[in-house]
TrEMBL record:
Organism this protein belongs to: Streptomyces pacificus
Recorded GO MF terms: Rho GDP-dissociation inhibitor activity
Identification of the protein by name: RHO protein GDP dissociation inhibitor
Any single Pfam family the record assigns to this protein: Rho_GDI
InterPro entries tied to this protein: Ig_E-set, Rho_GDI, RhoGDI_dom_sf
Amino acid sequence: MDVTSDFELLGMTIQVEGRPDMPVRLTPPDGGSAGPPSAPLVLREGSEFRVRLEFVVGSGRDLEGLRFVDERTRQGVTVGRQEILLGDYRRGGPYEIVLPPERLPIGHMARDVYQVTGTIADKDGRILGRESHSFEITKDWPR
């Protein structure tokens, strides 16, 4: 499916209470023309975090049934997938949505680098946008 101009993802931020917001460098999932891959965001095991999305809806049409699908892989194996309904949006914006909180796993086996692909689609299954990034779960926060 083609990515459409009805939607533009302006930014994505990881929020952890007591820590500075961590902006995600948006890159296409295929590694496209955004330059070299960025270093993974570092998150401490067991942390609770939220994802904040900022986007605009293009002049083409209003969007109904917007949803965000988050798929995570570790060492090439899918380890998680969730779909979150975002709702309906009129042309314009920018809009900001903070997704429900998540807690990272704890333990030696969870410490690794995870690849994430986020897809935004409408009720008809049209893919409006995609992004990819990575994060690393560590025992402690970086200094």
